[in-house]
Amino acid sequence: MKLTAKEKISYGLGAVGKDMVYMFSASYILYYYQDILGVSAIVMGMILMAARVFDAFNDPIMGVLVAKTRTKWGKFRPWLLIGTILNAVILYFMFAAPPALDGKGLIAYAAVMYIVWGVTYTMMDIPYWSMIPAFTEGGKEREGLSTLARSCAGVGSAVITIITVKCVSVLGQGNERAGFRWFALIIAVLFILFILCTCINIKEKSTVNVDSPSVGQMFKALIQNDQAMAVVITIVLVNCSVYITSNLVIYFFKYDFGGAKWEDAYTLFNTFGGAIQILSMMLFFPLLRKFFSAIKVFYISFVMAIVGYVALLILAFTNMSSVYLLFIPGFFIFAANGMLTVLVTVFLANTVDYGELKNNRRDESVIFSMQTFVVKLASGVAALVASICLSVCNLSDDTSSTAATAAGSSVVGLRMTMTVVPIIGLLIAVFLFHKKYILSEQKVEEIAKQIRQKRAKEA
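Below the sequence we write its predicted structure tokens.
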């Protein structure tokens, strides 16, 4: 039975909510604690990275727990709902640090909140993406839903990048600390409401009953699934590149480009970028798919991203004063990121079928737990790189815009980190993907056919 419009909309709403939360945390946690509360950039970078190391153990275990779950509501929705509620609560407290805390107490608070936030995000993110192979058939239906979900996720991310700075300013009436607290509360409530729609209207349709894997079996399955590992490594490198830029772009506008009205320039740039990213998912990607295979679109996206970063690097070293010039590299970077986001999910979903045929196990939760882990790992690495850049460049809320601009080495370091480092990451990613990934559209169709034949014999 094909997916109904109600099911598609409900699943898409869940993606909007969860990526609003993720983008809010990934893009503003460093800024909130370092620039507003005064925690050392290096200390925050170490906290964010340590949390990702912890996730190396937590995420796979969560994948196993999801796989072992058997309830009348299925194995995905209970974790999805519980994880969402807990994560929403932690999100609020993470951006509502008690005013009485300072020094080591504030550092401890930030560390505990961020680690617990990561645990609860995993609790809902793994079952959310694991549901795709469980209630879709392979091929066009799965690719269509993945595209829809990633497009909706892009909407959620774009909304946060567009409205956060302005909303924080309005809600806090000039007090950024209070503004972040109220904004976090609003995002947390919306998150719960959107995921509730997903849980009510989405049900598993075709989950294969297999024995739940142990942790040892899980790692063995991942190692044996060479295609899943190829996609996972690609996701790490792509997201590291993107998150380094997203972590530093607010500092670029505040201390380098934007001047006194940096908030307006930052919001305008993100509005344009968010619109392009959504269009790339909903329009550019489907259009290119009419003429090229998914893998070719993947390579086109990489070329666009690298061209965009090169253009941004060149423009950053000119005496430009108009934010509209930044729309040129922004178009290429945001469009490429939108398409890459859709494609890596499609590719990862395909590796579930590949793993079932190769290893006689259909481990949706195991495979998608790796996606959750590597995306958060990428954000941790990116935050560490960004924090080192901020520390070396000596950029913080105590630094006036004029002083930062006058310090040529600081500005150069910021510009180079947010452009050259991502270019290197993308080049490595495309090289490794080209060498390792073999699941062409024809190969995916062959695998799906073999699986159907295998199931028919076992029935």
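The chain is about 80% helix and 0% strand.
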